[in-house]
Amino acid sequence: MTVRMKVEGLRELEASLIALGNATAAKSVGRKVLRKAGKPIADAAKSLAPDDPNTSKDLKASIDIGTKLNKRQRKFARKETKSHVEIHVGTSDPAGIQQEFGNVNHGPQPFMRPAWAANKFKALKIIKTELSGEIVKAAKRLAAKAARGK
C-alpha cells in the first residue's frame, strides 16, 4: 500500500536544489533529509511491532529506512524521473505484512500504519527544517570543490 502526501509551499527550496547545478548533490541532499524524516516513523513502528518470543526472527529488528525495494515491490513501483528521490520505511521480513494486515490464522496487528499516522506531520516538519540547511551545506561543498579545481 502506497501512501502519498502532497506538499505545497516549498518552491524556493526546490529552486535552491536546482540551482546547485549538480543532480547527484541534489539527490544526496534529498536522501539525507528523507532518511532523517523517516527516523521517527521507523522508531514508532519498532515500538509498536509485536514480538513473539517463541520465534527466532525479530520483527522489530527488520524495520529499517532505505531506498531499495524487493523484486515484487519494484514490479509495482512507478518509474520516475532521474531526479526523483524516494525513501521507504518498512520491514524487510515478509511476515511483517501478515502481522500488519492479518491472515486466515490471526487478526491484524497494525504497527506501520499507526506509526505513519502518528508521525507524518513530524516527518514533514523535519523535511521543512532540515532541507534548507542541507542545501546550504551542499552548496558550500560544491563551492569548495570548484575552488580546488575538481
Fraction in helix: 55-70%
Q: Proportion of β residues?
A: 5-15%
Helix-and-strand structural type: mainly alpha
Quote the distance from N terminus to C terminus.
44 Å
H/E order of the elements?
HHEHEHH
Which outline best applies?
A: elongated
Task: List the keywords.
5 helices; 150 residues
Written overview of the protein:
- The chain has five helices and two strands; from the N terminus they run ααβαβαα.
- The N and C termini lie far apart (44 Å).
- Helix 2 packs antiparallel against helix 5 (112-148).
- Strands 1-2 form a two-stranded antiparallel sheet.
- The protein has helices at residues 11-19, 23-48, 71-76, 95-101, 112-148, and strands at residues 63-66, 88-91.
- The radius of gyration is 18 Å and the shape is elongated.
- The longest helix has 37 residues, at 112-148.
- It has one domain (23-144).
- The chain is mainly alpha-helical and 150 residues long.
What is the structure about, briefly put?
This protein is mainly alpha-helical and 150 residues long. It has five helices and two strands, in the order ααβαβαα. The chain has one domain.
Provide the fold topology.
Layout: H1 11-19, H2 23-48, E1 63-66, H3 71-76, E2 88-91, H4 95-101, H5 112-148
Antiparallel strand pairs: 1-2
Helix pairs in contact: 2-5
